[in-house]
Amino acid sequence: MLVKDVMIRDAITVTRSTNLRELLEIFTKFHTSPLLPVVDRDRVFLGAIKLKDVIEPFCSIPSRMMRTAKYASGGSFMINELQYINIPPDSGTLFLVDDLYSKKIITIQEDETISSAEQMMDLNRIGTIPVLKGPTFAGMLTKFDIVIGILKEKGII
């Protein structure tokens, strides 16, 4: 079975010109912390943005150090710090996705097998991966999508 057989095709995307307020409104539509693909007007994949990318510019400790700080403080250091820092209200329109998103994102091509997708996800400790057709964004794949695809193939669903 191929990635394109089980991926989410109508995934929500953002552009580099999406502002922080618009981005956060999109984030609120998810039950979990999303990984949103960043695309250009031709849907060429540029990178992705997640909650960490949004919060980090407002925190004094870089994310690579937060894991250590979290254990040292006994809790979620990023959230604790975010509660007490002064964030200007106009940040919602001043910050753009272009200022925040990650350009180095692990992706997979739509014609790869679901087995190779699962291996890549396990190896990189990720549960969601953007799917590309060449350089163009084609959809998103989660481990849940893989499980559902297998169960459908077996006739359980």
Describe the overall structure.
The protein is of the alpha+beta class and 157 residues long. 41% of the residues lie in helices and 17% in strands. Strands 3-4-5 form a 3-stranded mixed beta sheet. A two-stranded antiparallel sheet has the order 1-2. A hairpin with a 2-residue loop joins β4 and β5. The longest helix is centred in the middle third of the chain and has 11 residues, at 63-73. The model is unreliable at 68-75 (pLDDT under 50).
Topology of this protein?
Blueprint: H1 3-6, H2 20-27, E1 35-39, E2 45-50, H3 51-55, H4 63-73, H5 77-84, H6 91-94, H7 97-100, E3 108-109, H8 114-123, E4 128-133, E5 136-142, H9 143-153
Parallel strand pairs: 3-4
Antiparallel strand pairs: 1-2, 4-5
**Unreliable residue stretches:** 68-75
- Named CATH architecture: Roll
Alpha carbon gyration radius: 17 Å
CATH topology: CBS-domain
Overall outline: elongated
The biggest beta sheet is recorded as:
3 strands, mixed
Provide the CATH top-level class.
Alpha Beta
Distance between the termini: 16 Å
How many H/I helices? 9
**Strands, count:** 5
CATH H-level superfamily: CBS-domain
Computed structural class: alpha+beta
